[in-house]
Amino acid sequence: MEQSQELTLVARKPYFDLPTACPICLPVYIYLKLSRLPFTLEFNSIYPDSDQIPYVEYGAYVAYNNENDGVIERLKEKSVIDLDSDFQAVPEWISAKAMIDSWLADAIMYELWLGSDASVADKIYYSDLPWPIGKILYLKQVYNVKQRLGITKDNAQWREEQIYKKAKMAYEALSTRLGDQNFLFENRPSSLDACFLGHALFTLQALPETSMLRGKLLQHDNIVRYAEKLKMEFLEAGSSSSVPQPHSSPSSSAQRRGTWNWSSKPKGKPKREKTEEEKKFKKRAKYFLAAQGIAVLLFLSVMGRGSAEVELEDDDEGFSYD
Amino acid sequence: MSYPESKPDPKPQQPVNATDLDEEDDLDDLDDLDEEEIEDDDAFIEPERPKSRTAEERAREEKVKMASLVRRMQSGAVSLRVHDVIIKGNNKTKDYIIEAEVEALKNASTIQDLLRVSSAVNMRLQALEVFDSVAIRLDSGPPELPDTTNVIIEVVETANPLSGEIGAYTKAEARSYTVEGSLKYKNLFGYGDIWDGSLKYGCDHSAEVSAGVSLPRFKGLVTPLTARAYLLSQDWLKFSSYKERSLGLSLGLFSSSHHDLTYNLAWRNLTDPSQLSSKTIRRQLGHNLLSSLKYTFKIDRRNSSLRPTRGYSFVSTTQIGGFSPDSRSLRFLRQEFDLRYAIPLGFYRAALNLGVSAGVILPWGDGFLSRPSSIPERFFLGGNTSPLCTLGGPTTLWGFKTRGLGLTEPRRQINDENADPPERDYLGGDLAVSALADLSFDLPFSWLREKGIHAHVFANAGNVAKLTENEYRNFSMRKFMESIRGSVGVGLVIPTSLFRMELNYCHILKKNDYDRAKSGIWLTFSAPS
């Protein structure tokens, strides 16, 4: 496998001054940026309901969002980009990650699809689709989000309060954790920063000013400073192709091993290993049945062809004056 | 409806039934002939007879009259005008539906014309499929108007409006053979409307559920209007790693023997549940709105579509996508040509069939040549149908499997440890050309000849190329010709009432590394198109 092969990230389209406006794609983008690896960004704007996007291509290999805990975990697992090598066993890091992946992710999902008007989601997901398709997919997604968050007519008010309360708690905890540092843990970037920065940037730039979630985030100045600083340093520092070579120190935050080891199966049904014998048997059985069917059809059609022609002649219109 | 008063002539007035196949014993001559002619032809002037003539005498008399009429008709035109067209028997069907089909009767000026037009009108009314029987009778016109006749059309509306059928079909755009079962409800509102629901299953892993309505006359339009809503699902996972699902509406706007214009509006979704697709396919997954107009011009002067031995045919299909105020719908231009010529050779019913077909697809709009064309609209060569029967564009080649010819791309690699290279996706092409030559002849066995079973020797060639995404810059005719694939073969053709079956031995002359083609025995099924 050639190490010089480029990474390609396929994400949803940019908007709101964000390189990709989708809150699920943005953390992956930021993670690649934090690793300072060169990659190409491409967009898919006609498949808003796909859970495969974002995905990262490397040569003939692909890491899909809906496989193996997501793209970031896959990249870490296969030692392509691992910013978390020193944090995996740190309990605080793990609980902070769990908080971001659950409470803050739910809050963003609620705010985007149920808390604000449809214009934000429309700009991100449906602006390149014709109106009837976009509208139907939007309504379908709103329904799916309600199912996922367990929101019904009866508990809507209570669920909303619960979601915002948990988001507020998460912001306070992370704000305390962050303090005045540049990054959340040991002053160096990790996937935690990628996820939290993605959340923060989306909340600050994409959500409308009337958004309750945005209002709660703005109460923490250090988080706002953190978001702006990292955005300037990593996202606006230039295109990915001009990013310098990866670090080579032993405790490097961006390690890339020489060999790739993509041995997992794709999501969904893996190909069942069939023995040669089974395949041959099934093929023969198929041919046998087909031959039987053809023989019956031939018999009915060819042998019965004479009488069918007579009937056809009878149907012809004609005059007879005899 | 009562018959008009007859002249003071005891000759019985009986209408002429122009459409019954059975022997008509009571056919009679017409009352309203020229007086001159009547005077000239004694056979039509009867002296007064006693009322008590025997049936035998009457029958003899009528036979003489009819013989005379036939002689007159054979020797020249017998002039006659239509005074009135009377429609009977339509309790449910609106008058104007039937009247629109019988307009031509009013212009007939001779008996010969009238009989010919009556036959055509009868067929048109039968073709509406809402009548169990149609009878057209000619009756004498008003006595004060000589040379006139009243045409009486008696229809019997279908007693059982619900019918079902199962059939096997192939269409120009279908890749292969489909089996279809449908239910029809006829004349629900009396406008000759036919409502149908159908289920289709194709050998190319496609399934379709659709419902439609056909109106013979809609607000003064000259041709029937058809509308069909459908949900179509096609599984191309095995060949190109994607599944296609379309929910759409198809409107047949104009249809005649040579021209056909349809509009199609569909929401199409391409997915890859296997998550193994190649890069090109991955980039095209998603939703599209298809709003296209398709015009087909067809001339088929061949003597048969199952075994053409004489004549020619030409089909041109133009499809423009993007007929929508929304610029986000799929925009493309697709053109196909197909020219066939059959030359009879004069021995053993032998004929040489030559054919050439070509097609091109390009997106349109800003920067169209740098954008990719839509995968489902591209040209794919290969399949299990006979190129001789599939008229409409480059679709199949003998010896090449479904989508087996053309550009390919490796699929997603999963396992590094696995030494086998990943399978490949077949991507089709923007430009496709194919040509065929087929010599068919009877075998020297009378039993086979009776059944229509004959042999054929064939050769064909074809190629596809990519033009979009700026690949047209690398395109050259020389390279295109050098990479043409071809095959030859010999086989037995068994035509049946449902389909044409071919048992062939194909030998692949040339194929590319990744083409799916094999030399050997092939069985193909085609329904004539």
Please sum up the structure shown.
By secondary structure, chain A is mainly alpha-helical.
Descriptive tags:
heterodimer, A: 322 residues, mainly alpha, Glutathione S-transferase Yfyf (Class Pi), Chain A, domain 2, four-stranded mixed sheet, disordered C terminus, B: 529 residues, mainly beta, 16-stranded antiparallel sheet, 14% helix, disordered N terminus, mitochondrion (chain A), Metaxin_GST (chain A), mitochondrion outer membrane (chain A), Metaxin (chain A)
Question: What separation lies between the terminal Cα atoms of chain A?
Answer: 89 Å
Secondary structure: helix percent of chain B: 10-25%
Q: Helical proportion of chain A? A: 40-55%
Give the biggest sheet of chain B.
16 strands, antiparallel
Strand content of chain B: 35-45%
* Rg over alpha carbons of chain B: 30 Å
How many distinct helices of chain B? 8
* Low-pLDDT residue intervals, each spanning 5 or more residues of chain A: 239-271, 306-322
Low-confidence stretches of chain B: 1-47, 171-175
Read across the widest sheet of chain A, the strand sequence of neighbours is 2-1-3-4
Order of helices and strands of chain A: EHEEEHHHHHHHHHH
What is the global morphology of chain B? globular
Give the CA-CA distance, first to last residue of chain B: 46 Å
| Number of DSSP helical runs of chain A | 11
How would a crystallographer describe the biggest sheet of chain A?
4 strands, mixed
